[in-house]
Each structure stands twice: as structure tokens, then as C-alpha cells.
Design a protein that fits this description.
alpha+beta, five-stranded mixed β-sheet, 151 residues, rod-shaped
Length: 151
Amino acid sequence: MDEKRRRRDDAGFSLVELMVVILIVGILIAIGLPTMLGARQRSQDRATQTDLRTGLAAALTTWAEFGTYTGFDQAAAEAAEPAVDWQPAGDPASGEIAIQFAAGSELLLVARSRSGTYFCLRQLANSPAFERGRGAGFGDVDTPIECTGGW
């Protein structure tokens, strides 16, 4: 009896059982990976949107002080909000905010998410309201008139 019991204890798993486990793990990975990647892109986009809102707060300090966005450039922006990576007008790198347009009562900020999506935020002229937009490329959001559609 001891010999039979030892053989049963040393038997382990069969090849079929191992293949079934590997198949189940593969299915779970196939289901979970796209969900995780989607969540990663959404978090990268939300971080960029938060940076734009922070940039807007910095621009509003210039508006509150002078009554105009004229003069809100890279140096003024860095003085108002040094935690943001500012850039003058142009295609921003990931994590940067470009001051695309700042004159009179009009402001346009553009940023590129680490996911590659471009976001813009502009103040509507002579209004306290702001417009938000997004695009696949810089050319989709680089002028005030293109900054529409929301986030």
C-alpha cells in the first residue's frame, strides 16, 4: 500500500491539465490587456487636460493683473506656474504646453498627451467661457477656430 500511495503522490499534473491552465491564463490576458491599455491612454490624456487647466489658471493671473492676455508668454507663464513645462507657439512635445496665441481677450493653449492626442483650450473672446478641443495632429488644434468639440 505504501508503494501505491507514493506513486499517486508523485504523479503531478498531466500534459492536458497543464495545457488547459495555459489556455485559461492566455484567455484572461487577452481579455485584460486591452482594458489596461485603454486605461493607460485615458490616464495620460487626463494628465494633459489637468496640465492645460493649470496653464489656464496661470494665464488668468495675467488677465486679472493687466486685463489682457497680451504679454502672457513663456517667461510670464513660467513665473506664474513653474511646475508646468511651457513652450512658445508651435508643436509641443509630450508633456509641454504651447502658448499658441495670447493677445487681447483671446488665449489658445495647446498640449500633446503622452498617448499622442493633442488637446487645446481657448478663451472665447469677450466672454468668461472657454472652449476645449482635441485632435489627432497639431494641425487639428493649432488655431482658435479649430479648438472645438470638447474633451
